[in-house]
Amino acid sequence: MRKWNSAFAALAASYISVVLVIVLLLCSAFYLYFSNHYKEELQGRNRLILDNTARTLEASVLQRVQQIYLEVSLNQRAALRMLPDASLPANLSKVSSLQESLNMQVSNHSDLIQAVHLYAPRQHLLLSSLYGLKFRADQQAGAAYWMDWVNGMNLNSRNSLWTEARFVPDDIVSSIPGGSGSQLITYVHSYPFQSPGAASELLIAIDLKESALRAILQNMMPARYQSSFIATPSGGIVAGSNPDAAAQADTYAASISNALASPETSGNMSQEIGGSTYVISYQDLPTTGWKLFSAAPANLFYEKWLVVQRVILSLCLLALLVGICLSGILAKLNYSPLKRLLRTIKDLYGPGPEVPGVRGQALNEFGIIDSAFNRLNDKVTTLEGTLEASSPHIRQNMILNLLQDSPAQGSVTIDPQFLGLSPEHRHYCCLLLNTRGAYARMSLSGLQAAMSGMTGTLEAIRLHGIRILAEELPDKQTVVIISAREASGTLLEQLSDRITAAAEQHFQLNIQLSQGCWVDAISLLHTSYAEAQTLMKYAYFLPESRVLKDRELLKREQSLDEIPQPVLMRFKDKLQNRQLDETLAALEQLIAVMREGSYPADYCHFVLANTVFMYSDYLKSIRYTPSAHGPLDLYNEYIALPDIRHLQEWFAASIGIFIMETQKRNSDRALSTIEAAKAYIGAHLSGDLSLDAVSAKVFISPKYLSKLFKEELGITYTDYITGIRMEEARRLIENNNMSIEQIAGTVGYGTTPYFIKRFKEIYGCTPGNYLRTVNTLPPQAEISLG
Predict the structure, then answer these.
(1) What integer is the mean pLDDT of 360-389?
(2) CB 177 within 8 A of CB 157
(3) Closest by CA position to 621, among listed 569, 574, 577, 576
(4) Whole-Å CA distances, 47 to 63, 233, 287, 332, 560
(5) 132 - beta bridge partners?
(6) Exposed, middle or buried: residue 707 (CB in 10 Å: 0-12, 13-18, 19+)?
(7) Buried-state track 184-209, b at ≥16 Cβ within 10 A, e below 16
(8) Residue 361 has what DSSP assignment?
(9) InterPro entries from the xrefs (predicted)?
(10) What is the distance between the alpha carbons of residues 342 and 363, in angstroms, rounded to a whole number?
(11) Rounded distance, CA 600 to CA 558, Å?
(12) Which of 396, 518, 663, 681 would bridge with 487, disulfide CB 3.0–4.6 Å?
């Protein structure tokens, strides 16, 4: 009988061990696969539901509230600037008109908002759609219900603020407990647009009903999700699917804290509550910085998982039995070759009871083989050299720390020589290459090779007395660091030309480059990089400029100028009248003002986004659906455009298709009727243009004529009449040949004060102010307004 420590026993034990390991691995693999599949299924459903709910909240509530702010700030500019004025007590009639416009906003969005407030911080003056005009508002009864957001904005370095939900009673003066009220969330934004909260002239606040958020949560989130709520970055609860969401949220406090601390925009985590496992899912609401949470029991799929567990266990037991039988057979078959190998090893070391290197008698055949291989391993080890650690990752971190002005751990000083920079070079400059578009066209497999090839190509550029470092940034842009003995503008121009040429040759694509300033210390390199980043913002508006170096662009970042209201309104007016050439001319004028004016890049992007939103809302209002495409997604199409020239072409193509298709879908009768009505209106502006009078002239009912105007033109009959009259009035004012009273009568208004009121509602200023605005525009813009 063989000993238990013999080679045969060792082989049998090893095979059985391998079988056990394989079975355990298979069992673990099956378990992990099905467990992950289960988790992915649960998390995928949660994520989809949460994402749809977040999109609905963004589109239906949060963005609508911001749109209300824009409507108030853009349409009431003249009136808003009156509040901080010291002459306000002499213009209380204008305040009444402004309050009426606020009340109209609340009435138009009564399902969403409770009130709109205007607060002048320096004058402590409050004008509210709900509370009226209050002087010394900080000392008035009920001031606590608006001073919270006023104080919040005074401490805010940004231009907007979302408060947490709070209870506001219907009667803010009475101190009787138990009164009725509402849970409100206030959105506050400074005016002018870019001024920070502490320095703003005026605060525009909109009270959002918490019930509007709760209604969406109740409608969108399934009943099996026991609790859904929205949390602020500080952990406060804004709204929930149940009125007692704040109390329920305490149960999930640990998960909420972890989610708020996570940099991820969405995710899932598990939590034990009352002996049961729950999956807590969260999703960012980017407009406000809030997070949407939902809690679901984790046992929704456990029954199916228990069946799978039993099947896996049965298969593993069967595999274990078969493996043990095979282990015995294989051990017996492999024992003979093992003995031959042992004889060969003994022949190499010579006869004797011991093999050199083995202390004492070898326990079994495996001990002798192990000793021989140990001696061989020792010899190999003595021949191995120590490989120097690769440094590319360290270099990249050092460069990123330089650009972000955040040196590595502690007080470690960045050594330029480690980066390959000569101590003789005392001047540094950053160039920024916009390579996002080039990398976006590549597959993941080719991206790494493209990055390495690009940086190698740039660093291979040689000029006397300089050294170039190129590094790929996390945002897929490429930064080029130049070190030189002297700061030379000519040298910078030569390098810019060579770098753009090399990049274009590498990617077969036009690449834009921005130049930072020269600095005399490597520790100040972040200053040069910040300038290059700022200049790169204007690459979108100046696509024809290969090298962005104009320092005047840096001054635009500090400008508080706003685009004149007539320029902003002209595109909307022409679009609603479906005048293709005039609409495209208005768009071209707006783009020219952005490109040539002194407006910051972020402000111009904001205006472009609002123009796209306005265009999208107009198409939805007339129920327009493109014949060759799916549902409209204009905003995503807009953000995918690389520059403003492509934006203009996209707008021109989209508007052209829209006007062509809407003209085709109109029947001959509708077209002839609308055209006849428009012709009659145009010829009789000073006459009776009531719906009954005009419908009789075109031989259809007043109701059907009103329907045609709404469906075909996207506006009501009354709005069309007002627009035509105001358009004619504006033309007459620009000609400056008639008095205001004559113009009012010519366009069909019996009284001059009513005409002035309607003109101010449409254009935001009186006819006299409008004429002065036109006279101050550049000659090109003034001709376009005509």
Answers:
(1) 58
(2) no
(3) 576
(4) 22, 20, 19, 56, 41
(5) 128
(6) middle
(7) bbbbbbbbbbbeebeebbbbbbbbbb
(8) S
(9) Homeodomain-like_sf, HTH_AraC
(10) 13
(11) 7
(12) 518
Q: Tell me, what's the pLDDT at 221?
A: 79
**Predicted pLDDT at 100:** 87
pLDDT grade for 458, boundaries at 50, 70 and 90: confident
CA dist 295 → 60, 227, 251, 490, 699 (Å)? 23, 5, 10, 63, 62
In tens, the pLDDT along 461-504 reads: 777 778 888 887 877 788 888 888 888 888 888 888 888 887 77
Reduce the DSSP state of residue 464 to 3 states and report it. coil
Task: Give me 435's structure tokens.
Answer: 């390579």
Coil, helix or strand at residue 723: helix
Q: Which residue has the higher pLDDT, 650 or 736?
A: 650
pLDDT (average), residues 747-756? 87
Show the beta-strand stretches assigned E in 485-558.
513-515, 547-548
Mean pLDDT of 740-758: 87
Average pLDDT over residues 19-48: 74
* Chain centroid, CA 43 distance in Å: 23
Give the separation between CA 194 and CA 73, rounded to whole angstroms.
12
pLDDT band at residue 387 under the 50/70/90 scheme: very low
Judged by average pLDDT, the poorest of 88-97, 383-392, 424-433, 523-532 is 383-392
- For each of the domains in the chain, give its residue range(s) and CATH number, in order of start: 1-333 (3.30.450.20), 392-556 (3.30.70.270), 575-785 (1.10.10.60)
pLDDT at 188 over 90: yes
Query: Which residue bears the tokens 């799916």?
Result: 630
What residues pair up with 184 in beta bridges, in sequence order? 166, 209
Stretch 105-125: mean pLDDT? 89
Q: Are 69 and 112 in contact (CB under 8 A)?
A: no
**What CA–CA distance (Å, rounded) separates 227 from 219?**
13
User: Is 450 a residue whose pLDDT tops 70?
Assistant: no
Q: Can you tell me whether residue 475 is helix, strand or coil?
A: coil
Using alpha carbons only, how large is the chain's radius of gyration in Å?
A: 37
Give yes or no for a contact between 276 and 20, defined as CB atoms under 8 angstroms apart. no
**Sheet of 227-231, strands arranged across:** 237-240, 227-231, 290-297, 276-285, 266-273
Sign (positive/negative) of CA torsion 338, 340, 341, 346? Answer: positive
If phi > 0 it is left, if psi is from -120 to 50 it is alpha, else beta; for residue 578 that is left
Phi, psi of 331 (to 5 degrees): -60, -40
Q: How far is CA 612 from the centre of its chain?
A: 16
How far apart are alpha carbons 475 and 404 in whole angstroms? Answer: 14
Q: pLDDT value at position 741?
A: 87
Q: Long-range pairs for 211-215 at CB < 8 Å and ≥24 separation?
A: 211/182, 211/183, 212/61, 212/111, 212/112, 213/57, 213/61, 213/185, 213/238, 213/239, 214/239, 214/240, 214/241, 214/243
* Bridge partners of residue 167, in order along the sequence: 183
At 543, list the tokens. Answer: 């696509």
pLDDT value at 633 more than 60:
yes
Q: What's the rounded Cα separation, in Å, for the pair 154 and 286?
A: 23
% residues pLDDT > 70 (the chain): 78
Residues 210, 183 contacting (CB under 8 angstroms): yes
Residue among 194, 183, 184, 128 at smallest CA distance from 160? 194
The percentage of the chain sitting over the pLDDT mark of 90, rounded to a whole number, equals 4
**And the tokens for 580?**
């293709």
Q: By three-state DSSP, how is residue 561 classified? A: coil
The pair of three-digit structure tokens given for residue 485, joined into one six-digit string = 């003995």
202, containing H or E segment: strand 202-209
Residue 697: the pLDDT is 84
